[in-house]
Amino acid sequence: MRNPSIWTRPLARILRLWGIACAVGAVGLMAAYFSASPPALGHTRRHIARHLRERGFSVLEQDIIVAGGLPRQGAWFSRIHRPVVFLGAERFSRRTDVWLARMELSPGGVPLAIREMRNLSSTHLVNERHAAVSERWVFWPSPHVPGLAHLVWLPDPDRRFRLRITPAPSEPVTTIEEGRARLVGAVAGKPVWVLVDLGTGGIETSPGLTGHLESDEAPPLAGVVKVR
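Above: the chain's sequence. Below: its structure in token form.
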């Protein structure tokens, strides 16, 4: 019987070890993938804040909102497209504005690319202090015009509306919940509120208040003001 060549023995051994190493590595990657915890929003904000600062923006983590949030499941190689709304100031500017950035994020919340950057408020002489954000809308009170608030539709930022309220509430605060934009404040020391139905454009106000929407285009949010 012919003995196997001494040159094939080390090669066979190397191939066996290489196959075992590949199998162990594949098992380890699968275990890491299935045991990985969902992305934490705090980490996402930290990553985005660092990315924006590298582009010259002055921004705080708590002033960043990922509209729609991040999915709890996704392949490690996937790219997630999300609008990101933040309060920030450009390089050499001391005033904060409401900004929209369309970002590609990893499932772990790391920014991969910025596709678009828009200044939604452009109030260069005053600071924006607050904005409410949902998956499709951003809503904030004007910092320098009493009784005025702004609504912008995130899929198309050119679709924007002005909400005018009379008399003007002091210390207005905006929120968006269950398809409604809400503004609360005070008039003559009494709490007041305004609700805008984002599906129909209907407006409801507390007694003694009036409100209406204005737009540069034919507004799809055209509704009758209801007082209750």
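The radius of gyration is 26 Å.
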